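User: Please run a holo structure prediction.
Assistant: Happy to. Please share the sequence and the ligand.
User: Here you go; the ligand is iron/sulfur cluster.
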Amino acid sequence: MSELSPLSPHALADRILAGENDAADLPTLTRLFAGEVDTWELMAAADRIRRSHFADEVHLCSIVNAKQGGCPEDCGFCSQSKHFSTHVSAERFLAPEEVVEASAKAQAQHASALGLVTATRGLEDDSVALDKMVDGVRAVRDAGHTEAHGSFGFVSRDGLARLKDAGLTELNHNLETGRGYFDSVVSSHSYDERIQTIKNAKELGLRTCSGGIVGMGEAPVHRAELAVALRDLDVDEVPINFLVSIEGTKLEKIEPMTPLEMLHAIACFRLALPRQNIFIAAGRMHLGQLTPLMFAAGASGMMVGDFLTTANRSVEDDLRMLEQLGLRGRSCGAERPEMSRPAAPPVVRSTDSGRPKLRVLN
Ligand code: SF4
């Protein structure tokens, strides 16, 4: 086997910033995710891309559990699956006034969107569940506190059209992991069904939000597969979650990633997805004292407020952190950066030692 050429994250960033959006191909990303390069060097390269495209802007969003628990699907990480015995109980759908209350709270937390999330396989056409979510989306839209986003599982084109008419601007449907690992985590539906739902939303002109969960026992190649699949789908927002092992679920025994491993993964996703809004969601508590470094690793947003069934840092701490970092909010609907933007600051390479030293000029 021929020897692999050394990887240079900054050389990769140079190519990406020159317009080569997919410069980080699957083999390269697999090596990056596997830790072949120094995490700090990788983060510095990822941060050049983030700053070039997003400057000092970050996107904040929030979610509410509009139908908690009792889901018939068997996603191995999920506390809301009825296949697992967890602390989460099955509840009714929230009423329109309850989701409006949640959107007012999200606005107070500086979130520009509220995602209505249902623990359902999907919303079938002509179902009461679809009617309820159409009403919920309309209520959020009419209240005007935030944009109305949603994550409902599988929804047909007709169902999505009804939701869009009611005011839905963006659909979330995560791929969760790479295709090669998906069947190890989920058996009740297929990867292709998930991809088709995202395509349906795009065809209808909805913005799309799709990401996954890192740290479920997947290999580096699976993380790379996820990143490339999201790039191929050209989704708008990419939520990166880190596994929070919930007692009773299939993945309950998996240890959390370390903060540095999490930052390394975030930076890899930034190199894979230069223009997408990458926001950090569930599991970010595990970043601990390194939380502010998620932006230096390439994240361009974060979820604020509580997650569906797990806690988050306090909103006050998050907002104070952004203020101290000099970052400001960016709305979800803001245009995605074009690759024709001016290139990022040049990189100076010193070759006076064996290993190139890289320095970014400001
Ligand atoms: S479809 Fe969603 S709510 Fe249902 S088990 Fe899977 S992740 Fe949980």
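Residues 339-362 have pLDDT under 50 and may be disordered.
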